[in-house]
Each structure stands twice: as C-alpha cells, then as structure tokens.
C-alpha cells in the first residue's frame, strides 16, 4: 500500500505546478473588470475536482459569482465531511509594492520558509490552502484510502462578503448535509508549532461621509470661518478611542463576554515573542487596549479601525482648498455575543451624535458577519489534533484568531454543524498585502495532514 508520504513525494512537483497555474488567473472578486477571470477560475476548479476523483461536480449559478459544488458519496451510512474554501482573491493593489507581478507566481526562499514559498496574490488566501484539499482528495482516491463521504463547496465571493453563498446555503440545506465542515483559510503559530483556530471575530463595516459647504471653497477666503469636513472627520475619528484605547461608541462593549482568569492564563501559554513580532513589521512599540496583551487584543477583544480615508486635494503640488466632503471606511471586529446589526446601529447613532451642527454626516453600512467560537471537546477537534500531532510531532494549540470568515456562523445556524479550521498559513505570509506568499512546506504539510483528519474523524465517529 502506498503511504501518504510516498504519494506526496512522487507527485509534489505536479502539485506545486498545478497551484501555480491556478494562481495565474486573477480572480479578484471586488473588481468587476476581472469578472471573466473569476468565472474561468470556477471552471478550472470544477475540472480539477473531477480529476481528483469527485463523482459529480457542478457549477452552481447564484445572483453573483458561481459556487463550485462537488461530491463523492461512497456509502450513505458513513460520515460526510464538507470542505469549504474560496477561489476569489483580494485586489493586488498597491501593485507597485510587489517585488514580482502578483499573478505571475514565483518561488523564493525566505527566512521563515527556507524550503521556498510561492509568491502570488491568493497563494495563501485561499487558493493555496483550498487546493490542498483538492490534492488530498486526489491522494485518498488514488491510494484508495478515502474513508468517508466528501462534499466540496468552493465559493467566489468570500473577499466581498459571501452574499451569494448565504443565498445558496439557505436554499440547499439538504444537499449540504454533513457531519463536520472542514476549512483551511486561517493560520497557525509556526511551522514547528501547529495550532487549530477555535474562534473568529465578527465584522461590522461602515462607510462615512461628512459634508461641509455645498462646494469646494478657497481656503483663504473661507478658511477659519466654516467647518472643514476633513478636519472635522479627523476629530470625530480620533474621538472614537479614549486614552486607554477603548472604543467610545455608546454601548459598544455592552454584550462583550469577558474571558475568565483561567481562560486568559491558558491563552498566555501559547508561544509568542513580542520582540520578533515588533521586528517583523518594523515597529518600535506596540499599541492597544489597556489591560490586555497583544494576543488578547488581536483575538478576544473587539476593535475599531479606519481602513481608508480620503477627501480634498491629493494630487501633485499644493492646492489651497476646503473640500466639500470627506470620507472614511471603518471596520469593527466583533467578538462572540456582539452582533453586526447591533454594533452598526450603535455606530450610526453615536457618529450622528458626535457630529457638530456645522456638518452633515451620512453612514452607509456594508457587509457584516458574526463571530464564531468552537469548543475543543468534540471529535472534529480531536481528530484534527491527532492528525497534526502525527504530522508535526507535537500537538496543536487551540487559538482564537482575529480574522473573520462570516460564513462559518451561518453554517452553524443553517446546517447545524461545527466547523474545524485547519489553517496552515503564517501571519507573516502577507495575506491581503503586497508579496503574499505560501510556504511549500505548509502546502505539502496540509496535503499530508488532511487525509489523516478524514481517517481519524471517521474512526472516532463510529
Ligand atoms: N482567510 C481570511 C480570514 C482569516 C485569515 C481568518 C487569517 C483568520 C486568519 C478571509 O479570506 C478574509 O480575508 N476575511 C475577511 C472578511 C471578509 C468579510 C472580507 C477579513 O477577515 O477581513
Ligand atoms: Mn480567506
Ligand atoms: Mn481574505
């Protein structure tokens, strides 16, 4: 019988080359000018799921981008694993900060990836991680070791809020029945210390517009006598956090669940090197909510961040002007028990309240999502941990992440199943940033670990 290891050894070059081909298609869901490439990527995934051994694969049309659905049902009495991933990617901008073109993947060695890493938009988030599941499927089919039923659901709108997936899941509960949902779209602590993500933050995203005068004004003729919307917006934003870096939006923390001393002590056991953290992003000091550690600030605490701010003259040289309007995009990361609707409503009220009479404000809500936490006493977690322990030689550490995959909370509500987040990325892989990359080690380790999850999950389910 061929082992997992020897199959990977024999086919790894092809596994890598196939991923490189996939990364060449710019499936940017946020930008309509890439529409054809997004659709082409869905078709490519369909082809590869069929090649990997799925019996039936369909491209399911939705109001937005299609969802690729594939399955292999070997025995209805056996458990079913539902794999979710996304084939869309973030926009590549700012393109000038990439060392190599974002859609022309190259393999380069880095300090953390001495075996090489693939540099391309989507290499880690999520094409590389999603494709590990396709190759794990091929491996199990080819070595005749697939122990249970599998369903794949790969979407193309994750990076823009998963609206069509929401639509699809609500209409296909029957088709999507499963015993556990498996996702690789998160990270782990390091290549020698795996972790399993046990929580994701929710999200509330708004865009604000501040209007002063009805037209742009000469800043000499009017300056000092009328409200400058950019000055006002800056002041308003600055007031959203106090000296302790706590968020001042009225009622923002009302529903936040505080962790117990024991839970916080457990969290603090995870290895973390503050100096290396600072060094990796070139910071001389950290920043955040008083009374919490860096790892707490970026996982169990809610946040408010400006993602973009604009207005007035930003071209070459100087223009003396008071702009009529100023804008900002603001995201709030939420923790369990805060809901996106509640927080958005509180933000709108608060933002209107703090606006001086000299300006008008408008707040437009964007997509949102609920946070998620998963217990570790279920067989999904145990099976994942057993798989990691075998391939890494050490058990995985449970860890809550600061990122969001809003659809996970919806899966729990609509499909009534738990999600296991087996992520193999590193925080330093620069997802959403220029020079995104994914380690070859991580990619192959994923392909090696996933079949063991299937094996142990099926065994434990019996
Ligand atoms: N894969 C990420 C989320 C992620 C990354 C979670 C690393 C944990 C660790 C996902 O593609 C993503 O970027 N999500 C967005 C939210 C979405 C609604 C645009 C996010 O977290 O900003
Ligand atoms: Mn992702
Ligand atoms: Mn992403």
What does this protein look like?
This protein is α+β, with helices and mostly antiparallel strands. The chain has twelve helices and 18 strands. It has a six-stranded mixed beta sheet with strand order 1-2-6-3-7-17, with helices on both faces. The longest helix has 22 residues, at 440-461. The two termini are 24 Å apart. The model has no long low-confidence stretch (mean pLDDT 97). One manganese (II) ion binds next to loops.
Task: List its salient traits.
globular, binds ligand BES, alpha+beta, 12 helices, four-stranded antiparallel β-sheet, six-stranded mixed β-sheet, 462 residues, binds manganese (II) ion
Compact overview of the structure:
Helices cover 33% and strands 21% of the residues.
Task: Give the arrangement of secondary structure elements.
Blueprint: H1 4-23, H2 35-52, E1 56-60, E2 67-72, E3 80-86, E4 106-108, E5 117-119, H3 127-142, E6 149-155, H4 163-171, E7 180-183, E8 195-200, E9 202-211, E10 217-218, H5 229-238, H6 261-267, H7 274-280, H8 294-297, E11 303-311, E12 321-322, E13 325-334, H9 340-354, E14 360-369, E15 372-373, H10 379-392, E16 397-400, H11 407-415, E17 419-421, E18 437-439, H12 440-461
Parallel strand pairs: 3-6, 3-7, 7-17, 8-16
Antiparallel strand pairs: 1-2, 2-6, 4-5, 5-18, 8-15, 9-13, 9-14, 10-12, 11-13
Helix pairs in contact: 1-3, 1-12, 2-3, 3-12, 4-11, 10-12
The structure holds ligand BES and manganese (II) ion (2 copies).
The sequence of SSEs as H and E is HHEEEEEHEHEEEEHHHHEEEHEEHEHEEH
Q: Approximately what portion of the residues adopt beta-strand conformation?
A: 15-25%
Largest sheet: 6 strands, mixed
Question: How many extended strands?
Answer: 18
Instruction: Give the names of the bound compounds.
Output: ligand BES, manganese (II) ion
Distance between the termini: 24 Å
- Low-pLDDT stretches: none
Kindly state the percentage of residues in helix. 25-40%
Radius of gyration: 24 Å
Strand order of the largest sheet: 1-2-6-3-7-17
Q: Using the alpha-carbon principal axes, give the shape.
A: globular
Let me know the average pLDDT. Answer: 97
* Category from helices, strands and their pairing: alpha+beta
Instruction: Give the number of helices.
Output: 12
